[in-house]
Fold this sequence. Notes:
Blueprint: H1 2-15, E1 19-22, H2 25-32, E2 44-48, E3 54-58, H3 62-68, E4 73-77, H4 83-90, E5 94-100, H5 107-116, E6 118-124, H6 126-134, H7 138-160, H8 168-181, E7 186-187, E8 192-195, E9 215-221, E10 223-225, E11 228-229, E12 232-238, H9 243-261, H10 269-282, E13 294-296, E14 303-307, E15 320-323, E16 326-329, E17 333-336, E18 339-343, E19 348-350, E20 360-361
Amino acid sequence: MKQRLDKLQHTINTQGWDHVLITDPKHVYYLTGFASNPHERFLGLLLSAAEEPVLVVPALDAEAAHAASIVNHIVTHQDTDNPYELLKGIIPGSAGVLAVEKEQLTVSRYEQLQHHLSVSRYEDAGPVLREMRVRKSPEEVQVIRHAVQLVEEVLQRGLAQTKAGVSEIELVAELEYTMKKLGAEGPSFSTMVLSGPNTALPHGVPGSRKIEPGDLVMFDLGVYASGYASDITRTVAVGQPSSEAVRIYETVLAANTAGIQAVKPGASYASIDQAARDVIANAGYGPAFVHRLGHGLGMDVHEYPSVHGQNSDTAQTGAVFTIEPGIYVPGVGGVRIEDDVLVTGTGVEVLTTFPKELTIIG
């Protein structure tokens, strides 16, 4: 974390910024070690060109911040205080050029900054933070591995509860209970279990539908562990699936394999997406693959990079992202197979190890 702070401090000097204000709680954690959900309260990390960093936290988090943060200068505010007045006291006079996370900053907070600070120009710190976050450290990879191990155990236990007559929402409840029981902080997104015709909806909402013999059942789930996310999708059959469902499954599995094999340092994300998409198109299901191949994974379950056909950025060693091709055919069903992968110095490591051959339950 000290290295991350130093890098951001160096950027302040090279970019000609006067200050950087970080308000995304995940970025505060990434840079200081202090994890918090401040809700509507103000949380901010202020870095300046020639001063030590200042962490501004709600007073009720003061003890936790002092215990966890590598930043020594911590300023607290009560619920009745105006935190922007505190910032004005920390930055007397003109704030000059202030870098913020433009994608995260709300209009309301921007107006508060405008009112209380004399800012000559706003710059975006987002691209710098994105570039820092894309290369996972060995310690970050280890935490992601743990999150993957947890979610795979959750999925294994969930499959043991899967049978005809069980509803989608019942399985969701079992999975999310198991996550907490095994030590996860919670789901990294809304757990998805879809069955039968509902599997043709890439982002369907689990409901009261009960699994019927011959159904495909799609599980898409992830957990947070020590602040990092995992994400996995597997599709199984309960009873004998139709011949077309089997063909769709085999096509998606081949696309998943092709996408993984295309991953290496320097490969464009567009080429990785295309490798998987070609398999599906050649099988005649091109229009049924309606989303990108994958997304970055780390402190957010969806972060940079976006693995799609228009992204000419290239894979960097240390990047972690998903490979998740899918085919969705109304009236038949859908299949998605998702793995989490790490770009290594020579190629790719698949972090998810859960079996991918078609599993038929019952």
